[in-house]
Amino acid sequence: MQINLDKDQQKIIKIALSDAIEKYVGLSQAQEAFIHNIDNGMGMKEAEKKFKLDNRKEWEYYVYEEKNPLYCLYDYIFTSPASFRG
C-alpha cells in the first residue's frame, strides 16, 4: 500500500505516534537516567551524549527485540533512534 502525505499530515502522524509511545512508556529509562545524571552533577553535554546512547539502545530494544507495534510503525515511517546512525 502506498500513501502520499503532505508535510502537515506527516507532522500530525508523527506527533500522534510520539504521544502514543509516551503514553505507553511514560518516562523512559533513558529520560530517567538523564535527569538522574544532571541531578548528580554531570555536565549537560556529557548527560546529553549518554542520553542519546541510552535512548538509541532503548529504541533498538522496542523495535528489534520486543517488536512493539508503535515503535516499529514510527521507525518504519520516520527515522527513529533505532535506525539513525548519524
Uncertain parts: none
For the secondary structure, the number of strands is 0
The rounded distance between the terminal residues' Cα atoms is 29 Å
What is the strand content? under 5%
Average of the residue pLDDT scores: 94
Structural class: mainly alpha
Number of discrete helical segments: 4
Q: What sequence of helices (H) and strands (E) makes up the elements?
A: HHHH
Level of helix content? over 70%
Query: What's the main sheet like?
Result: none
Indicate the overall shape.
elongated
Cα gyration radius (Å): 15 Å
Describe it:
The chain is mainly alpha-helical. It has a domain at about 25-85. About 70% of the residues lie in helices and about 0% in strands. The protein contains 4 helices and no strands. The chain has helices at about 5-25, 30-40, 45-65, 70-75. Helix 1 runs antiparallel to helix 4 (about 70-75) and helix 3 (about 45-65) packs across helix 4 (about 70-75). It starts with 6 loop residues before the first helix and ends in a 9-residue tail after the last helix. The relative contact order is 0.13.
